[in-house]
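anyone seen this seq b4? input:
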Amino acid sequence: MRVVSYKPGALILLALLAVPLSGSLSAQPAATDPNIVVTGERPPEPSQMTPGPEIKGIITARNGEKIKIAAADGTSTVVDVIPATRIKAGGGLFGGGRSNLTSAALLNGLPVTVKTWQWSCGLVANQINFKNNDSRTAMMIHNGTNQRFEEQIAATEALRGRMADIDKYNIRNTTNVYFDTGKAVLSANAKAELCATATAAEATENALMLVVGYTDSTGSDEINQPLSERRASNVINYLQQVCHWKPYRMLTPTGMATADPLADNSLPEGRAQNRRVSVNILVSKSVDGL
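predicted toks r here
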């Protein structure tokens, strides 16, 4: 695990990112991912399809009745939700169960287990299950988390230009995990460091996490911006799904591409340090030390 010190610019950046993005989502976030292809072809009846794989992960985007599910290993799967799809919530902290829910219950950030059918154009959801307490958590955080992929670059640029008060938070430490060039896949070492960070932060009451993705200077802005976002997203998914960090204790994440490099991008070893995701542990000064 690596703890780094802070330059004034980095401290201001952390404070900026702690402020929720503007344009908060309403009761059902209209999260549209342009990479989810809508073919215009209606899925066939269930009797015409064959059983598909079971998928576990977090809903990260929607386009119409298609949902994208990100798994803990960083892979993403797009699934059709049709009228015959059974959507159920049950158990968990709040007890009780609900069935025959509509697709409006499928919020971004919601961990789900999906049983699928296979058809020629992809996968169709047979049954989608989630926990009541996970649903409530997703509802709590979706107004403060912008999951709209096509707006993320503009939102990040807006964050860079905003002013905020760094005195709101004490920054306990930062753990950096590193990536191969052009990749967003977590290494075994990175996975171990993330769970160690979550365990250490869990011992601090009121601790929050701020996850920020970065790239080195290799490649264009059009490549580096979404790459930094994928890295941050994969870290968040792993922290929540495997390391059991609660979503409501996660501040608004973002990708910052080549901004705020740790080292010289003209050197190979410098670029290696800049291909990172920073997991920042913050505590509000209003409660720190209580």
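The chain has two domains: 8-23+146-284, 46-141. Residues 205 and 290 are 9 Å apart (CA to CA). kinda curious what u guys think
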